[in-house]
Amino acid sequence: MRQQANTTPSGSVNTPGGDGRITIGTTAKPRTLDPADAYELASLGLVFNMSDRLYTYEPGSTEIKPQLATSLPKVSPDGLTYTIPLRQGVVFHDGTPFNGKAMEFSIKRFIENKGKPSFLLADTVASVTATGENELTIKLKKPFAAFPSLLAFSGVCAVSPQAYELGAGKFKPNTFVGTGPYKLAQYGTDSLRMDVFDKYWGDKPANKGVNVQIQTSPVNLFNAFRTGAVDVAYLSLQPDQIRSLEEGGKKGDWQAITAQGSVVSYLVLNRNQKPLDKPDVRQAIAAIIDRPLLNERVLYGQADPLYSMIPTTFNVSQPLFKDKYGDGKFDQAKEVLTKAGFSKENPVKIPVWYPSSSPTRSLAAQTLKSLVDTKMDGIVQLEVNTVEGPTFFKDISKGLYPAALLDWYPDFLDPDNYVQPFLACQKGSDAKGCEDGGSQTQGAFYYSETMNKLIDQQRKEQNPAAREKIFAQIQTQVANDVPYVPLWQSKDYVFAQKGVSNVQLDPTQNLIYKTIKK
């Protein structure tokens, strides 16, 4: 999942009062509130807070727990049939009762209305049936061990069958009728009002409702928070603003809350472009990267160095790039490249591309270039290039870029989502690389029959310990073949005024509204 920042028209601002409501400031403007079409953080964060899914996450953990389901699914021995018991006594915001039929309708709508995220279930689900008033049975096209994590995706929430309809493109972007702790009271271009839903089945919110203010720019959000016009500020501030607010937090002016993020940034190396077709050239580049330096110069320390494509939010993550290449091992890189026949006279020339909308990646590219210029004795030359986002994302899958700087927002929280979209390839060969599949879309064109088999194995494997072993093999192979070099993983920052408590993020980067109180 990839996101660009967006801007919004300016407008009125409601200030926090003493009415027990919480005012949240953000620059993230939602494109839609329809869960079957929501695919950006701005939209998903709002849907998340007004809805319930079959499963959800504990804050700070990637383990799922039942929400509208009453337990984890019962899985058939062939891994294809999931039987899910449902909660009783739940009602939608419009008074319609929730039951097996309503959940069947909600999931069918997510698939059949063909919204942006519909592929998440359409590729996996063969059928959805209410097999009882309080039971749902889902049959899969092929086994997929991470399936329950897909059911925790915010868009796969229960919606009222009275308020929505099935059919491709039949969306309701400006309304929301679910079963969650808040119902939508007002939705304008620059603000939203959520009121507490008095018939909510679960724990009632700790506040009297939420006002969301959509600011037109990070600087407006920064100022709104510093002047106390908003209780909580989240998404998105610039690194220097975060640094300034963190310092204020240390002085006790307000609270700075950080959480380990699941967004990863990485360098793509295209194996179909010379000299990156040579594994030792890719390995030398892995040895040159200096993550602590990038973290300090580019990110002001607001990230964590990453040594696997699977972030440390998952227990299967192994820091193999650290063990094998370390950071800034220039002599090692020179030795490998000299052996491979490169020299000052015959340098490794690599154009590095990135989408122009990102100041962070621009700075990262410049930092890598100056590192190579000063430390590699002219054996390696990096050339930094940028292009508009839409062009970049169109052209990367055509193989136009030898190397590229990118980030990845996970679609669902399972290590599979950091492996399959990057390394899988349905059609390809050792000679031509990937012609159709994840690694072609990502611009690496990586092809490995062994890797395809490992990916299929972990997708079928229901036993967590056995699955962990397969992920270890996958990560070992990535560290050897280097189709990508992991760079950093995000940290998420939320700022809250003094006297505001229980501000938490869920592991998919959603701010959890219902626990916040002041």
| Total tally of structural domains | 2
What portion of residues is helical?
A: 25-40%
Q: Beta-strand percentage?
A: 15-25%
Low-confidence stretches: 1-15
The CATH homologous superfamily name of the largest domain equals: Periplasmic binding protein-like II
Q: Please give the CATH class of the largest domain.
A: Alpha Beta
What is the CATH fold-level name of the largest domain? D-Maltodextrin-Binding Protein, domain 2
H/I helix tally: 16
Backbone shape? globular
Protein topology:
Layout (H helix, E strand, L loop, with lengths): L21 E5 L14 H10 L4 E3 L6 E3 L7 E2 L5 E5 L14 H13 L6 H4 L2 E8 L2 E6 L6 H4 L31 E6 L3 E6 L12 E6 L3 H9 L5 E3 L4 H12 L4 E15 L9 H10 L2 H7 L5 E3 L14 H6 L4 H10 L8 E8 L3 H17 L4 E8 L1 H8 L6 E6 L11 H4 L3 E3 L3 E4 L1 H4 L7 H12 L3 H18 L2 E13 L22
Parallel strand pairs: 1-10, 1-11, 14-15, 14-16
Antiparallel strand pairs: 2-3, 4-5, 5-7, 6-7, 8-9, 9-10, 11-19, 12-16, 12-19, 13-19, 17-18
Describe it for me?
This protein is an alpha+beta fold. The protein has two domains: 233 residues, Periplasmic binding protein-like II (D-Maltodextrin-Binding Protein, domain 2, 3-Layer(aba) Sandwich), CATH 3.40.190; 231 residues, Dipeptide-binding Protein, domain 3 (Roll). The chain is 29% helix and 22% strand. The strands form four sheets. Strands 1, 8, 9, 10, 11, 12, 13, 14, 15, 16 and 19 form an eleven-stranded mixed beta sheet that branches. A four-stranded antiparallel beta sheet has the order 4-5-7-6, covered by helices on one side. Strands 2-3 form a two-stranded antiparallel ribbon. Strand 2 and strand 3 form a beta hairpin. Helix 7 packs antiparallel against helix 10 and helix 15 packs antiparallel against helix 16. The N terminus is likely disordered.
